[in-house]
Amino acid sequence: MAAVETPINREHAQSGVDVKYVAHLARLALTPDEEEKLAAQLGNILGYVGKLKELDVTSVEPTAHAVPMVNVARPDEIHPSLPHDDALRNAPAKANGLFIVPKIVE
Amino acid sequence: MLNQFTISDLAARLARREVSAREVMQSCLDQITRVDGKLHAFISHNDADALAQAEAADKLLARAGRDASRPLLGVPVAIKDVIAVKDQPLNCGSKILGRYVSPYDATVIEKLRAAGAIVFGRLNMDEFAMGSSTENSAFGITRNPWDPARIPGGSSGGSAAAVAADETIAALGSDTGGSIRQPAALCGCVGLKPTYGRVSRYGLVAFASSLDQIGTFTKSIQDAATMLNVISGHDSRDSTSVRQPVPNYAAALDGSSPDGPTIKGLKLGLPKEYLVGGLDAEVKAAMDAAVQQLGKLGAEIVEISLPHTDYAVATYYIIATAEASANLARFDGIRYGARVDGADPIELYGRTRGAGFGAEVKRRIILGTYVLSSGYYDAYYLRAQKVRTLIRNDFLKAFEKVDAIVTPTSPTAAFKIGEKSDDPLQMYLSDIFTISCNLAGICGVSLPCGFTPSPKLPIGLQLLGKPFGEEIILRFGHAYEQSTPWHKQKPLL
After folding, report:
1. What is the distance between the alpha carbons of residues B345 and B366, in angstroms, rounded to a whole number?
2. CB contact under 8 A, A72 and B281
3. Which of B138, B263, B348, B476 is deepest in the core (most CB within 10 A)?
4. Residue B4 in 3-state DSSP?
């Protein structure tokens, strides 16, 4: 079976992405191995998606959503919601009907 | 064997009390016992619960008989592991959810239950629906029923394999860039992605919210129509679902019109941009024959152009990863799932997510975070949203001229396990024909249209329709299916 042609921008592949910084933004702890592998792979992928620069989009409106709908609202009334116990059912740590989290304020 | 029946076959037999729902359910469970060790379509299944639902269906059949309000009474339907079923595990093919058990039913599950279906099993998938091969699951890979050395497609590979292997009568999946249609094509069943907004996503774990849609896997187009009737409709719990009347999809096919199911005079667009590049010769031959057949059945074939096709994969991988990076922020070890402790919340989040997510999910979170980050937003994300407009306009313009569009579903038949797993970009490009449909927010269905000669692997035909144009693509699909033998062929297991 024929492979789909893959245009790869070598320059971008080598320049790479500051994966450590982006991983911090994403709150994602990576091993040095993962960082290295991701930098190379993301370089390739960004090189490929760079093809969008070929198009002139100056007068084009962005699409955030394919179905044109705005401001879906409902009356401000109380409806039944998930019972408290059910909402806490899958919590990794809980007590007294609350989620337990690490200390946030000294 | 009862597990091989379609919904419509079963409905008739259940109504005449020739078979019981319990026998049907047991037959599916027996098939799972026989073949799922090899295929691994299911992550888990609760047999006692499934049989209890079947017995309840039999009681209802005995008491009240079959009626139109319960079109799925006694029909087993298995569920992709991304849709919430009350009191059943939900993992999205990931480690990060730990021992999560759903506290509520998704809207589609409520609707299936109301229609009488037996809701059972958790079907394997690429982690968080990110993948095209079902090789990215924390619960192991799923294999193709036609050749266990090959992938079933993805991300809904478990759903497609289970239906193709007759382990269930029908299944639900989700489709963000082809995750229903591509595995349906590669496993040889019918996969329907409804229009964005047609089906409520309440209870579907979000991947890319502007693209995700729940849809069906079935053994015939008729069954897809029956399932779509059950799961469609507006839902106040999903503000992206649309207040659009639900037509009787099944009736539109079954000859209730005086002419019977006909596609005579309907226009079918053939996009020239889809027949170039990496399209496999055997897939192209099957596709050409299918187009010819549709022409013989009365469709008028019209060449059309979707000029921005070549930009769809790039646009998709910016928009989908950007949305995923935001949606997956909720998996932080605080409210649910497995937690890895840290000295402060930031360290806890990072460690939990680093330990819980697999490689592909990490890759997409990093890519999505990058394209949204300060300094890159306009160059990548905003630009992609603008190109999305161009892609959508291509389709809307084409639909001024044609009633539906026909394409191959996937550029190749099923590839070998491991063949593309080290090359993410090659893997992304296997979705080249399915991705535009999600970007444009239209509907699409894949159905069997032939086999590669050696090895014998299914080939899928994709029909794309206007927004809320499911009736038309199902009618095209039904006419084609009824005049061809492909959907009746079964893998040797």
Report:
1. 20
2. no
3. B476
4. helix
| DSSP type of residue B103 | S
Whether residue A3 is predicted with pLDDT greater than 50 in this model: the reply is no
* A45-103 pLDDT tens trace: 999 999 999 999 999 999 988 887 888 888 999 988 899 999 999 999 999 999 998 88
A40 in contact with chain B, both atoms CB, cutoff 8 A: no
SS3 B341: coil
Which residue is listed with tokens 């999600």? B438
pLDDT(A11) > 80: no
Residue at B12: amino acid letter: A
Residue B487: name the closest of B53, B33, B132, B6 by CA: B6
C-alpha distance across the termini of chain A, in Å: 61
B118: which strand partners? B76
Residue B80 annotated as catalytic: yes
Beta strand residue intervals within B248-375, DSSP E: 267-271, 300-304
Contact A49 B380 (CB under 8 A): yes
B429 and A6 within 8 Å at the Cβ level: the answer is: yes
Active site residue B155: yes
Q: Tell me: the pLDDT tens digits for B207-246? A: 999 999 999 999 999 999 999 999 999 999 999 999 999 9
Test A29 with B354 for CB contact under 8 angstroms: yes
Place of tokens 């079964």: B490
Q: Of the given ranges (A10-14, B329-333, B357-361), which has the lowest mean pLDDT? A: A10-14
Do the Cβ atoms of B277 and B284 come closer than 8 Å? no
In a domain, A46, yes or no: yes
CA of A95 vs chain B CAs: smallest distance (Å):
12
Q: Give me Rg for the CA atoms of chain B.
A: 21
Q: Which residue has the higher pLDDT, B493 or B277?
A: B493
Nearest residue of A to residue B356, measured between CA atoms: A28
Q: Report the complex ipTM.
A: 0.91
Buried b (16+ CB within 10 A) or exposed e, A9-32: beebbeebbebeebbeebbbbbee
Burial class of residue A80, CB neighbours in 10 A (0-12, 13-18, 19+):
exposed
Domain count for chain A, please give it. 1
Least confident interval from A74-83, B310-319, B356-365:
A74-83
How far apart (Å, rounded) are the C-alpha atoms in residues B287 and B220?
Answer: 19
Q: Whole-structure pTM over 0.80, yes or no?
A: yes
- For residue A91, tell me if it sits in a domain: no
Q: Which amino acid is at A7?
A: P
Predicted confidence band of residue B260 (pLDDT cuts 50, 70, 90): low
What's A45's domain CATH number? 1.10.20
A61 within some domain: no
Q: Is B488 an annotated catalytic residue?
A: no
Could you tell me whether strands B213-218 and B190-193 are parallel, antiparallel, or unpaired per DSSP bridges? antiparallel
Q: Nearest-CA distance from B372 to chain A in Å?
A: 10
The DSSP line for B456-481 is TEEEEEEEEE-TT-HHHHHHHHHHHH
Domain presence at residue A75: no
Domain B2-263+443-488: CATH superfamily is: Amidase signature (AS) domain (3.90.1300.10)
